[in-house]
Amino acid sequence: MRRLPPLFAGLLLLATACTTAPAPDPKAAEERWRPKPGLAWQWQLSGRLDPTVDVPVYDIDGFDHPASAVEDLHRRGRKVICYLSTGAWEDFRPDAAAFPKSVLGKGNGWKGERWLDIRRVDVLTPLMTKRLDMCRDKGFDAVEPDNMDGYRNSTGFPLTAADQLRYNRLIARLAHERGLSVGLKNDLDQIPQLLPDFDFAVNEQCAQYDECGRLVPFVTAGKAVFHVEYELEAREFCPQARELGLSSMQKRYELGVWRRAC
Asked: What is the pTM of this model?
């Protein structure tokens, strides 16, 4: 989940056996994209997509863009990450009505969004499976599952660290079964446990909060860390980011086209 601007800051796995998820494909696992540290990237979640930024990696909204947009980026030599919210409900998504009210918690600070009860894997597994199927079918190379640190927030549910680990690993497994790479979004406290399950990391504002060193295990493991800052100028965080091997840039909160890379 994007950190809020200052204005806003003030059962179990048995259920998965009932889904229609395909069996793991060994060939897909071998061919899965594994981004290396230092790759430049563009993260655009609002506005008309600009496919001309000269970077090897794009991260775009999975619902908002058709397969043709992914194909166009591929023709331009880009790998493409599918942004999804897997830990929060969004009232503006086409599948919003499929989520029962019993799994909807408190708002997460963004209009139309509410935390999900990630303990309810019986309900969420088939819903997330369909979303990941969408990413695969549109031709994406990877997925960025957002809002994956609910246990650290006031969600309306008594979520524990164990609940979060179980759910995050479930999402990673579902992505891998579809040949998709998967990134760990924020959730710094659980990096030691989740590093083997995720192919890269996506982080917001680790420099502002003096947390970037906690992402080094990904770099040491040969896995990219895609990082943005919103309130710091590039000159303030880029020297450290380069030293640590992060793929860093300055963005605005709306995550439009504008970027200032390190």
From this structure: 0.89
